[in-house]
Amino acid sequence: MKKKSIYIFGLVLLTSIVSFGLGFVFDKSNKATAQKKIFEKWEYGSINSIFYFEPEKQRIDKIFGIVEFCKMTQAGCQRSEIRYELDYGKFLKQANLQETFDSRKLASLKASELAFQKALSQLGNSGWEITSEPEKDFKSVSLYDYERLDNKNLLYTKTNTKAIYFKRLKNR
Question: Is 77 a residue whose pLDDT tops 80?
Answer without folding.
Answer: yes
